[in-house]
């Protein structure tokens, strides 16, 4: 089997790429395996490379070495590859948030190359989506909008400053956006039947559980159950919202009395979201703008490499 490491050179501000390369080289000498390293050159390059990769009959594992955005690109490329049944998706989390790996608990095992090489694939779901009826793409982890997306946009600006990259940029982004408290007026259609309308501060739809560097927005989500999980937090006062942010991050917001009044939590298979204005949507950590979003879970679409010692 081919072992291919697709490295995003600017993920996580480019701090761990050299370290990962040395770990790959060291493990290759020790375990006597051959490998390919490919460094991406621009946005979309990881997707193109994965889509065009010609795997041998024994197959290949394509490791996305970056954050959730890099994982998203490689997953889309695998799905587009004519021999996708021969390909396994892997992740070495060296990005900013690395939230998809938080579904499994022990993120450090994902950075251990021998443990990755000795891992085994599991079947996971993916999300097929279209924005404003454009062509379909895949997401692996999470969609979020409203206050969430405004914070992501703000954190990307903050991340440019020295010492403020990483999860701290998201926390600072929250503090900045609390002054304007951005929210969305949405019409939401669940499984072509139930309709929810209203003003929502936080909107998260997860195949995985976390986003934003550790916010456990959809704590009941499972990446292999054929379902999506949605958390909606209704519009509320600034002070009330501030009091709930900690519980939202920990995945316990539904347990509080205030949370029970403000939170709508649903499990679903298909979803349409229509915003009353063109708005920012964060998809696997990357920002897009759209008026309408249509989602469908695709059970068991991808094989994902689970490092040795991690069970799911």
UniProtKB/TrEMBL annotation:
Query: Annotated Gene Ontology MF terms?
Result: ATP binding; ATP-dependent diacylglycerol kinase activity
Domain named DAGKc: which ranges? 1-133
SMART domains according to UniProt? DAGKc
Which keywords fit this entry according to its UniProt record? ATP-binding, Kinase, Nucleotide-binding, Transferase
What is the name of the protein in this document? Lipid kinase YegS
Listed Gene3D superfamilies: 2.60.200.40, Probable inorganic polyphosphate/atp-NAD kinase, domain 1
Task: Report the PROSITE patterns cross-referenced here.
Answer: DAGK (PS50146)
Top enzyme class, one word, equals: transferase
Q: Which organism is it from?
A: bioreactor metagenome
Q: Give its E.C. classification number.
A: 2.7.1.-
């Amino acid at each position: 089997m081919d072992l291919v490491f697709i490295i995003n050179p600017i993920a996580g501000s480019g701090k761990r790429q050299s370290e990962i390369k040395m770990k790959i080289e060291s493990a290759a000498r020790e375990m006597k395996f051959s490998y390919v390293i490919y460094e991406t050159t621009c946005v979309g390059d990881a997707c193109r490379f994965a889509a065009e990769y010609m795997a041998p009959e024994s197959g290949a594992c394509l490791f996305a070495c970056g954050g959730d955005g890099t994982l998203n690109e490689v997953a889309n490329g695998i799905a587009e590859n004519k021999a996708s049944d021969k390909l396994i998706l892997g992740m070495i989390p060296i990005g900013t948030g690395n939230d998809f790996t938080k579904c499994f608990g022990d993120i450090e095992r994902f950075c251990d190359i021998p443990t990755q090489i000795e891992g085994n694939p599991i079947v996971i779901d993916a999300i097929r989506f279209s924005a404003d009826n454009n062509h379909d793409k895949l997401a692996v982890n999470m969609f979020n909008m409203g206050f969430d997306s405004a914070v992501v946009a703000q954190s990307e600006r903050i991340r440019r400053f020295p010492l403020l990259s990483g999860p701290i940029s998201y926390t600072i982004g929250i503090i900045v956006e609390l002054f304007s408290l951005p929210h969305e007026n949405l019409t939401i259609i669940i499984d072509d039947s139930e309709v929810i309308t209203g003003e929502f501060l936080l909107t998260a739809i997860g195949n995985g559980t976390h986003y934003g560097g550790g916010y456990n927005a959809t704590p009941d989500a499972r990446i292999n159950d054929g379902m999506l999980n949605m958390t909606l937090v209704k519009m509320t006062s600034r002070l009330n919202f501030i009091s709930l942010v900690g519980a939202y991050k920990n995945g316990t917001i539904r347990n509080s009395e205030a949370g029970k009044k403000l939170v709508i939590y649903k499990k679903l298979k298909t979803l349409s979201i229509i915003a009353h204005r063109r708005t920012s949507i964060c998809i696997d950590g990357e920002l897009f703008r759209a008026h309408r979003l249509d989602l469908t879970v695709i059970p068991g679409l991808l094989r994902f490499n689970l490092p040795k010692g991690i069970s799911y």
